Structures are given as structure tokens and as C-alpha cells.
Amino acid sequence: MKPNSRNDRPSPMFKALAIAGSVSLAVATSAAQATMLDGIVDQWTVGVSTIFDTSSIVDSNGSSPGGVTVVNNKSLRWGNDLGSGLSGLDISGSPASGTVLTNGPAVGNVSITHLNRPITGDTLRSLDILSTLTLTPWVPAAPGLPAQTLSFTVHYAETTNNANPCADGGVNGVGVNVNGCADIYVTDANSLNFSFFYDLDGGGSLQNQQYYISFFELTSGLKPLNTLACTAAGVASPCLGFETPEGLDTTVQFASLITTEKVHIDVPEPSSLALAGLGLLGLGLRRRRRD
User: What is the C-alpha to C-alpha distance for residues 136 and 139, in angstroms, rounded to an integer?
Assistant: First the structure.
């Protein structure tokens, strides 16, 4: 058996979303369980390994890494401590490995936490995150697809705590700005319906089945940001990210979904659920380039 044996190389089908809505997923279900008889992989082992690309760090003065301290490739800190610690970003749960059912539910993996502290001095402005994805058929067992590493950019704005209105246009002391103006984190990776092929019998009578892998943010922390927040982070609107209350830690977790049909999104009314591909892109699939 060998993956991708036909002449059609895995062809990406990219759909970038920044979604505001009470989102319902309409995922097509398979009429039969995956077996060697129909050529469908029923279960996959999905491996995700995510790190910061420390060579890509840019601080608020344009230096690299400048005022950002690299604790290790999964932990960054910046600023001058005013008594509550330093601000920073941490990757947790990486590497992650889980079993994902074809046409089943999304399965969680890597998380990122932003530590928002009152500080002075230089701060993070942008960096790249490197993610490696591996897909291996589990039921039926078969050789895995080659691991792929992808890079995508995060933009960050450490805002002035006592501004009013805040950088996002909100009132200081209200909502996410309750403890002072929230900081802003934007990711350029949000994705659904990346396509790939897997041939279970290496060119035999079975079909070379097409699959789609999509990536979801489970905690509803990521959401479309308004134009002012996007501009403060140095990116065009619309953008996808999260705002973090002063003095608190904000964690977002991501998950992967594998289907044999495209995922359809129904957005009937506004809400905060959004979808993103942080730490989960791969399989030789192209992505949107950084801003």
C-alpha cells in the first residue's frame, strides 16, 4: 500500500473564514463504515507538533528578537515587570496525538495561552508559528502520509492600559477592557476543507479516496475582530484573533476534523464561535501567505 499513488498530487482546496455567527456544521455522513471493501480510511491517527519560530520574532521596535525573551521554543516573555510578572505566550499540549474518525467529531490537540500583565518596555509585535502535521490511517492500518511543516504569522498589539476609548474602540472598564484596555492577538491561519487523497491498495481496484481536513478552535476564544482591533495589530480587516483582559491568562485550544465531503457552515445569527487552523496545517497544502 502507498499513499497518493495516482498522478493527481494532493490538491488543496482552501477556504478562509472569519465567522461571526451561531455556527452549525453540516458534515456529510458516510453510508457505510470505512473498510478495505470501499477504500475509505475509517480512523486516523493525527499528530500535531507546534513551536514558535524564534528566528522570526519582531518586537515593538522592529528588532529581532529584541525585547522578547525566548524561554524556549514553546514559551516567550516580554516587557519590564511591574510586580505582576511578564507578558508572554505559551504553547501547551504539543506534541499532540489523537484518533480522529472520518466523518466524526473534531478532536482537540494543541493550545496557546496569552499571559497579559501590566508591563513597560518593548513588547512582541509579530512572529511565525511552525506546525508539523502527520496523518496515519489507523482503521484499516496503512502507511502514513509524509509529515509536513507549515509556517504562519501571528500579529500582536500590547495596548495602552489607560486609554479611553481603547484600541479596539471599546470603553475602558467595560467588557474585555474591564481591567484596562485588552491586548490583541491576531492569527493569519483560519481554514476549512483542505483536500488530500489516500489510496489504500496502491493503484488497485479501490478508489483513490478524497478527504478534507478542517481545523476548529474549540474554546470560542478566537473570533472575528473589528476594524480598529485589526488595525491596532497591524493587519487588514477582517481578521481573526482574540483580545485578552489585563491581568489574566487566555487559553485557546484547537481541534481537527476529517470528512469525505466538504464541511458546510450555516451562520444564522451573530455569536462568538470561530474556526481556525492554528498549529494544524499541513499535508503539502498551500495557505494564505503572511500579511
Answer: 9
